[in-house]
Amino acid sequence: MSITSLAERLYFRSRNHELERHINEAEQLQADVLRRLLSLAADTEYGRRHLFSNISNYEDFAESVPVNTYDDLKGDIDRMRHGESDVLCRGVVKWYAKSSGTTNDKSKFIPVSADGLKDTHYKGGTDVVALYLANNPKSRIFDGRALILGGSHAPNYTLPHSLVGDLSAILIENINPLANLVRVPQKKTALLSDFELKRDRIAAETLNKNVTNISGVPSWMMSVLVRVLELSGKKHLEEVWPNLEVFFHGGIAFTPYRKQYEKLITKSDMRYMETYNASEGFFGIQNDPTDPSMLLMLDYGVFYEFIPMDEFGTDNPTVVPLSGVETGKNYAMLITTSCGLWRYLIGDTVRFTSKNPYKFVITGRTKYFINAFGEEVIMDNAEKALSYACQKTGAQVSDYTAAPVFMDQNAKCRHQWLVEFTREPEDIDEFATLIDNKLQEVNSDYEAKRFHDVTLQRLEVVKARRGLFNDWLKSKGKLGGQHKVPRLSNSRKNIDELLEMNVASNA
Fold it and tell me: Are 338 and 116 spatial neighbours (Cβ–Cβ below 8 Å)?
């Protein structure tokens, strides 16, 4: 019996039986989670302020606790970072996941409590393996090593043993020491802050290891794998790691990277499994390899609510618990967690594909969209259009961003896409036309604005030089870790900075 088979029998099989409750007992699982979260925080400052001890059902909870953004909670979070206990969650929180995103501040500092590490983040990691082994009974992932990309961390103010950093660094720092027996690289390499140095060291350390599985953000993992091939002199990754069988990926959409991975890893039985593990919590796992949607994880330390996107930003939007969602509808997601985020607007948007069990796809960000002219283009639209254009032309994309070009004196306007290719299309204009046509097909608002070129003209694609987006992230101090390029924006700030760098490098 292999090590993997033994581990599956001893540690993971029983969990797969528990996960069957997600099919017929979803609402009960969520009710149990809410009851537990309220009980844990009843004696915290936030719990007393909002009378948690008097809440007996979801309706009471929704009435007593306001919807919150990061700006609403950051004062309390900063007090926690200075060492105050029992503020938003019980005890003193020593770890904070540093994240950029939907806030007016440069960075968010998301509390990661001891409860949250155990009941959400590590539980999610365990379930990824459990579901993978259930789908792949002949797997041998524990017979080799796991290559796990991590970020870095730094001291939190002057508090002893308190740190801020990428969530991945927090997970590596607190992981069960036994896990280090099956993972690479060594801890000090994984936590390096200089991504370029880290990439080279990871490649060198893993070159002669029996790597069976890899985990990380597709863009950063791609950079590491390319370096592995450069050092090895091999053309395909299975020549370096013949037993590699799965990539557990998340953080950004995988679609723009799939062709590149299939070019690096040509073995027919290579598997890819998506996860939704954010700084704020672990929310979803792809449980069926034939279905790109993910299973919503309902028995962690996370309670979910949803705002229909057609009401998002209004004065009194409808907010529904899980039982109130509809398939095919776009929602902004609210979470309540054991880390002290109460009815927190995470900034992601989702669409449910099934309610039995509850399965969903990530459609974008509440602030990552273009709606300069009433076209309401979201990331889901953009990813579908880009994938279509790549499929039709054979192009491969490593990074992109898009923003509006506002009306000129002739009332002409359009969207402008800055795209970095790993394989360029023969005709950039044709590539732009394909994206434009597909956007019209998947988005009726965009189609209406494009009608006869009356409001919007055909979008423009500008070719970015190789490495432009990495250089831009580096200039912001955001190279590596969980940092991402904003894909869509109503503002031209990011794209203008990138275009300026693109022109300067070509001068």
Answer: yes
